[in-house]
Specification:
By secondary structure, this protein is of the alpha/beta class. Helix content is 30%, strand content 38%. A hairpin with a 2-residue loop joins β3 (52-55) and β4.
Length: 199
């Protein structure tokens, strides 16, 4: 009897869950001015892509929005970036692989009627050479902490999650630019103002 009750309760919770859609357009706020001249492959681990975060009656699919933001971080640091599942040795000058290290969501309804949502995420960034051998592995993190009384809880969850993803995208871009090796592509200089003709 208890087993039946627990199954019914789980089914009820799943039916009551509100799914929050995250934007897939998050990108580093400040693109790098000196990209690597290499082409890069981008790999998002299966665990990262499949992750669904939830708290109370709210949930969001983290995988694709996070992978998209991280891919844009690589695009801002390398001549080109292409998502691949299984890179082949020699296919890219560099392969950047991302793993989900941590993910935690907290939703609290405060006494004053406002809602506080805190979302934190950590991503391991692994750089591999043309031979696919790992070179470096570092961690980037992001935290979104939002308290609102003028929006629905789902909106506050979205805002906190997207703020954390923005921090991760910015952090990954800075990390990749700091560790670039070899020749770089310089951003084109702003169009010079033509000199006035002499009179």
């Amino acid at each position: 009897m208890r087993r039946v009750a627990s199954i019914l309760a789980a089914g009820c919770c799943a039916a009551c869950m509100t799914t929050v859609e995250l934007r897939s357009t998050i990108a580093p706020a400040a693109p790098g001015s000196q990209k690597s001249s290499e082409a890069a492959g981008v790999v998002c681990s299966p665990g990262l892509l499949a992750h669904v975060e939830h708290a109370q009656f709210y949930a969001f699919e983290l995988g694709e929005p996070l992978c998209s933001a991280l891919t844009k971080s690589v695009e801002s640091s390398y001549r080109s970036a292409q998502r691949v599942e299984q890179p082949v040795e020699g296919q890219f000058g560099r392969v950047i692989e991302f793993y989900l290290a941590s993910s935690a969501l907290s939703v609290r309804h405060l006494r004053d009627g406002s809602t506080r949502v805190v979302y934190s995420v950590g991503v391991a960034v692994e750089s591999r050479g043309r031979d696919l051998r790992p070179k470096t592995r570092k961690l980037v993190t992001g935290v979104g902490d939002v308290t609102r009384s003028d929006s629905s809880t789902a909106e506050v969850v979205r805002e906190a999650a997207e703020a954390a993803l923005q921090e991760v995208a910015d952090g990954a871009s800075r990390l990749l630019l700091a560790g670039l090796e070899g020749p770089r592509l310089h951003a084109p200089a702003a169009d010079a103002v033509p000199a006035s003709p002499e009179r």
